[in-house]
Design goal:
Dienelactone hydrolase family protein; about 190 residues; 6 helices; Dienelactone_hydrolase-like; Dienelactn_hydro; hydrolase activity; AB_hydrolase_fold; alpha/beta
Length: about 190
C-alpha cells in the first residue's frame, strides 16, 4: 500500500480526477486530493488557465506544497498536467519521497535541483501528439536518461487530459493502460 498525494489539472478537481483517485483507493492505497481551486472546475483548459493566472500560479503551487506539509514525508507525489509542477518539485526536494507519477507533463529536472533524487522511482505518461506534452517530452526523455528509476510511457493520440473520464479528452483504452501501469508502480514502492 502506498500513500499518494494527487494534484489535479488546470480544469480543477473534477469528478474524473476524483474517480481516478477512487480507483487507486479501491486498490488499497491512501490517496489525498487537495482542491487547489476551492471547488471551482472549468470546462476548458483555457478557462482554467485564466483562473490560475488571475489567482497566481505560484500562490496555487504554494497551496499545494502546504497540503503536503500536513502529511508525513513518505509520499508518492502524483500530478495531472498543471499538478505535475507541484508533484515533481516535491518529489525532487522533499526528503522521504517514495516516488512520483507525472501525468501529461514533465518539468526539466534542473528547475528543482541538479539531478533526480537517487532511489526515487518515477513514471511519466503522455500522448505522442499532445501539443502540451510535446513541449515537455524533451524534459521527460532527459529525466529518463538520467536515472534507472524512471519510466516514460507515450501513448498514441493527441488528447491531453486523457485519463479524466469527466472530460471530452478521455481515452478509455489509454486510460486503462495508464491505470494498470500506475497500480503496478504503486505496488512496487
Amino acid at each position: 500500500m502506498a500513500e499518494v498525494l494527487l494534484y489535479h489539472h488546470i480544469q480543477g478537481l473534477t469528478d474524473g480526477v476524483q474517480a481516478f483517485a477512487d480507483e487507486l483507493r479501491q486498490a488499497g492505497h491512501i490517496v489525498h486530493t487537495p482542491d487547489l481551486f476551492d471547488g471551482r472546475t472549468f470546462d476548458s483548459i483555457e478557462e482554467g488557465f485564466a483562473f490560475a493566472r488571475e489567482a497566481g500560479f505560484e500562490a496555487i503551487r504554494e497551496r499545494g506544497a502546504a497540503a503536503a506539509a500536513e502529511l508525513g514525508p513518505e509520499l508518492v507525489y502524483a500530478g495531472f498536467s498543471f499538478g505535475v509542477t507541484i508533484a515533481q518539485r516535491l518529489a525532487q526536494t522533499r526528503p522521504g519521497a517514495r516516488g512520483a507519477l507525472l501525468m501529461f507533463s514533465c518539468i526539466p529536472v534542473a528547475e528543482f535541483g541538479g539531478a533526480w533524487p537517487e532511489g526515487v522511482p518515477v513514471q511519466i505518461h503522455g500522448k505522442e501528439a499532445d501539443e502540451f506534452f510535446d513541449e515537455d517530452l524533451p524534459a521527460a526523455r532527459e529525466l529518463v536518461g538520467s536515472t534507472s528509476d524512471a519510466e516514460l510511457f507515450v501513448y498514441p493520440g493527441d488528447q491531453h487530459l486523457f485519463a479524466d473520464p469527466s472530460l471530452d479528452a478521455y481515452d478509455a483504452e489509454a486510460s486503462a493502460l495508464l491505470m494498470e501501469r500506475v497500480k503496478g508502480f504503486l505496488a512496487s514502492v
